[in-house]
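About this split. The held-out portion is used to measure sequence recovery: a designer receives only the structure tokens and must propose an amino acid at every position. Recovery is the fraction of positions where the proposal matches the reference. Here is one held-out target exactly as it appears in the evaluation file.
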């Protein structure tokens, strides 16, 4: 997966933010469709570059994440500081039925190993990242592509 300029939320100029209202509507539609309930909603902040909604479904909770700048969604079974368990969920197939404005990333995409040559500090994962983002990556050393797209860097 190509990592786009600004995806980390670090030093971005002239990139529009995603529509959080549209995201909330989508999540409420998913909750209604699946007989679930929105348990919490968290906006991006200084050390988190994504929106996070916790959706209660019967006997489980799942998290729906949205990057703050690009309309990339992912599902997770757990979201803890610097530890996100990305999953595929049956609701991911339903998202496109509600709204074509988001791209749902699969667990294969988000769990793909992020490749960095430790010796040369070159990124081996395909990217258009800016210099500030690359410097943050060298500092934080993300393990997966999902750790870059949905991060807790400050």
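Reference sequence for scoring:
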């Amino acid at each position: 997966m190509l990592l786009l300029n600004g995806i980390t939320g670090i030093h971005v100029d002239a990139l529009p933010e995603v529509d959080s209202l549209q995201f909330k509507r989508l999540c409420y539609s998913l909750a209604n469709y699946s007989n679930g309930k929105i348990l919490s909603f968290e906006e991006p902040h200084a050390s988190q570059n994504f929106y996070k909604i916790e959706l209660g479904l019967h006997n489980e909770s799942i998290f729906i994440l949205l990057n703050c700048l690009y309309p990339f969604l992912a599902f997770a079974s757990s979201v803890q500081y610097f530890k996100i368990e990305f999953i595929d969920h049956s609701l991911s197939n339903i998202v496109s039925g509600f709204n074509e404005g988001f791209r749902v990333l699969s667990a294969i995409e988000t769990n793909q190993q992020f490749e960095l040559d430790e010796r040369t500090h070159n990124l081996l994962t395909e990217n258009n990242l800016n210099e500030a983002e690359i410097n943050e990556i060298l500092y934080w050393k993300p393990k997966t592509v999902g750790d870059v797209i949905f991060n807790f860097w400050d």
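Annotator remark: Residues 20-149 form one domain.
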